[in-house]
Every structure is written in C-alpha cells, then in structure tokens.
Amino acid sequence: MKILLIGANGTLGSAIDRELSARHEIVRIGRKSGDFQVDISNSASIRALFEQTGHFDALICAAGNVKFAALSDMGEEDFALGLQDKLMGQVNLLQIGREFANDGASFTFTSGVINREPIRTGSSAAMVNAAVDGFVKAAAIELPRRLRVNSVSPTVLIEAMDKYAPYFRGFKPVAAAEAALAYAKSVEGLQTAQTYQVG
C-alpha cells in the first residue's frame, strides 16, 4: 500500500513508520520535515499536499496541536488552536483526501486518553479528542467506495514521560511501538468507525 504518514518525524509517527515501512510504501509528511510538508490547520495546504502526493491507499495522521493550560487561563483563541489544528485538520484530511483516496482506502486519525480520563490543564485536548472520535463514528457510515475511517486513542507514551509525567501521575504509559500496532490494525484490517484504545 501507499501510505501517507502525517507527523512521521514525531515520537509516535516514527514508531508507526518503523511498524509499517517493511510492508508498505511510506510517504513521510511533516510540518517542516519529511518528503512533503503540510499545515493541517490550513485546508489550502492540505489540498496542495494531496495534489503533490496523488492517490493513496491509506492516510495516517499522528499530528495535531492543542493548548494545555489551566481552564481559568484559557481564552477563545486558546481553544481555537485545538479546534482548527487537531480537530478540523483531521476532518479536512478526510473531506479533501477522499477525492484522492483509492477505492477501499483507509484514514486513521489520532485522539487520546484525556477525554476518557481528564487531566489538569487538558480541557481543550479532552474536547478535541472526544470530537475526533465522534466524527470518525459518524463519518464512517456515510463514506462511499468502501472507504474506511478509524481513530487511535493512546495513553501517554513512555518516550514522552520526561516531559509529561507531572500531568499523568498514576497513568501506566505505553511504548510508542505498542501504540503503533493500533495504527497497523486500522490500516491493514477491515474495520471502520472504530476507536482503538491503547493503554
């Protein structure tokens, strides 16, 4: 398969790349690195990406920004970051990307554990993650041409604990390689409308 991997240079994206690259052609995409670049918060940038990459068999998004701050410090612009980037970025990858997706292609998006197990400073992330998972379930029933869409909802990664441990006390972190298996399940399996929880 030809797989577009957005966020390929990140901790999670690199693990997904290692899991799938032995079996598939990986097109590595980042905001500033990779074979191609994209700003997922900008629909024109997304369309330009697809015009460069052409048709594909699977798309994985392991990217997306949200603001982490105390609720009392969050303003409208702070919430807008996550809504425009991580949420609408992934929505637009599907909306625009289906024009370029081969029959039977899959989309795999990333949400996260925080909407199921909230943490301090995570109100925006929780909102966006829940919206991503909800969008996947609803969009799946309307997709034509055997197109599929799933999300992966990982807990905090072992490799990120140096940075995030204070926010995830009591959580059992998982290795990025373990989370990558859920993306492989989504891409190489047959299911749709699923949220694969990791950890």
What can be said about this structure in brief?
With 199 residues, the chain is of the alpha/beta class. The chain contains six helices and seven strands; from the N terminus they run βαββαβαβαβααβ.
Shape: globular
Distance from first to last alpha carbon: 28 Å
Estimate percent helicity. 25-40%
Question: How many helix segments?
Answer: 6
The radius of gyration computed from the alpha-carbon positions, rounded to a whole number of angstroms, is 16 Å
Unreliable stretches (pLDDT < 50, length at least 5) are none
What is the ordering of alpha helices and beta strands? EHEEHEHEHEHHE
Mean pLDDT rating: 98
Largest sheet: 7 strands, parallel
Strand numbers in spatial order across the main sheet: 3-2-1-4-5-6-7
Amount of beta strand: 15-25%
- According to DSSP, the number of beta strands is 7
Structural class: alpha/beta
Description:
The protein has 199 residues and is α/β, with parallel strands linked by helices. Helix content is 39%, strand content 20%. It contains six helices and seven strands. It has helices at residues 11-20, 43-53, 76-97, 123-140, 161-164, 176-188, and strands at residues 2-6, 25-30, 36-37, 56-61, 101-110, 148-154, 195-198. A seven-stranded parallel β-sheet has the order 3-2-1-4-5-6-7, sandwiched between helices. Helix 3 packs parallel to helix 4. The mean pLDDT is 98.
